[in-house]
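Tutorial handout. Part one gives the primary structure; part two gives the three-dimensional structure as tokens.
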Amino acid sequence: MLKLKFLLPLLLIALLLLTQPALSQDQPSHLRFEVKHGFDGYVKDNLWTPIRITAGNAGEAVAGEIRIITQYPGEHYVRRLTLPSQSQKEITLFVPLRGGEYTLEFVNDAGKTLYRRRQQSARMIPQGDFLVGVVASEPGLLNFLAGFQAPQSGYSVEVAHLSLDELPERALALAALDALVFNDVDTTQLTPARQDALAGWVKQGGKLIVGGGPNAAATVAGLSPLLPIEGLSVKTLDTLSDLGNLVNEVVPEQGPYLTGIPQPAPNAGVDLYEQGEAFLLSAPLGMGESIYFALDFALAPMNGWAGNEAFWKRLLDPLESSPPFYASYNTPRAINKTICFYEL
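Part two.
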């Protein structure tokens, strides 16, 4: 009787193990899914978020659906996925995440779940925080902005580094970004869909900020319809006293500085002249704003100037914690009423 008492728990454990399917049956080892959330990992609660999935298949061809199941009851998002043998594909779904958690599934055409895993965003931030996207050739550009307190709302500023290819091709999918900075990148590589998405995002309340400098022409080229400029010329300036006066912080370094001097468009407001040249321009665009600055944000004097923080606070100051783009009637929950959603 004593032996039976000790053997019974072992028998129960063995029975449970036998009734559980092996991992290779539910999640075949030849299937691989890698996931990237949001913008450089940042996700804003309950706003549309790009979820990039790289799917690999080292086995036989398989077809089915990628499903993202959110914490909102009954809500899931679906994308068709076909994986030939020895293939890899990247797909992006746009999902309003709640709490940053969701379940990722891949279900084949026979209805069998081949992959299922709980996902969690590590960089979940409130909607009111300022998320500044940076598309630049210089790694870490504007990292000093992280942790700033937004002047009007008091919320924190976070910085997300992005590539041109990581920008969504849907305006609503950019909703988590409050500002987007382009500096020393060739924007002619933007697809027409991304250009349209950026235009829609600005018109719905986004802030577009573009840096100039010696490569201003390439940076501006794919964004020119959105900017308050009609032309550019590269000029050398020896001093930048007016820039220093803008934020009451002397620019100590002496030039020469290569600048991309703009020709203002009729709708442009010139916020700063330097030695008689238009240097900082802005213009409203729908409910948003576009800004052009004649210097490269990564080069001297900006990369070592004590007034750089004050300058950026001035640029970001007009941002509201809840711009018109995020009005309650325009939230993902209000827009979508059905239970099952296909991609945005």
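Part three, for discussion. Residues 265 and 331 are 34 Å apart (CA to CA). The chain has two domains: 25-123, 126-322.
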